[in-house]
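Appendix B, Record 12. Input sequence as logged:
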Amino acid sequence: MNENQTNTILLKGLYTQRKKIALVTVVFALLAMGLTFFIPKKYTALGIVYPTASNSIKDVVAHPDFGYEIHSDRLIQLFQSRIMQDWVVETFDLIDYYEIDTSSAEWIHSLDKKYHHDISFSRNKYLSVEIEVSSKDPQRSADMVNGMISYVDTIRRDMFLANTTILVQNLEKQISQQEEKVTHLLTQIFNSVPSEERNALSQNNEIVIQERKNKAIQQLGDETVLNSLKNNYSITVEKLINDYYHELGILNSLKNDLKVAHEKISLPFPGIYEVTHAVPDGKKTSPSTLKNGIIGGTAGLIFSLMFFIFQIKLREIQTILKDD
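Logged structural output:
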């Protein structure tokens, strides 16, 4: 018996059993659809947010643009962070909700698996971030989405304030050291004694200081420097004066940086842009009766085909053995 004959017999055999195949397919589909009513229902809530392009409220107000792709990705990382997960688990009592046995050695793995199955974050083509939560209660799903949207700003603000506080502490330390250096140079200038005649260079410095004085924009130590230029001039004093104003410039720059840092701490922190606020939706998203029916019917079709193919092949083998 060649291959074509074998295939013909197989197709004829399946055609003969077509009613049984159809019956098995329908039965499997109905069983799967029936099982749907015994599977816990789940309801999905969706929230959509846009990131800001800056953590400065001034920048956000001046340039109220949504963040770019990198800002969306960073925001997703915060949503996916362990800080966020721990907060969600504690706030919504997910250990009890998932019936996790904390005495088990693998309870954290089990919790993580269920958490990531029900909660997802993604960036869509418009660069906004979508937060999707599924649970057994529509209100719970919506509350979890909205809670995470609110809490992510807390995470962002805490991280920003922590870094800014470190910057402030570092600047205050540098300013203290710089003030000692400036004070020491000014003391040396004050205690200096004359050793030679004044020259044009000293007169230029005096003119600059006098111009600042006339404009009421004097700098710290100008009077002491001016007095030394008039009464205690020397090349050494000239060098000390140059060093003094150089170090004073560094001190003023550090103080300005500290002022900016304090301003950032005192100003309101910009929140992310909330586009879609999650609302409870009473329409279940899973399990799907239609989807389960299709899956069940497909499984029944495959099972019945395999069964009758096996039956036909078995008969062929038995026929061949009898002929021999």
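Residues 80 and 116 are 9 Å apart (CA to CA).
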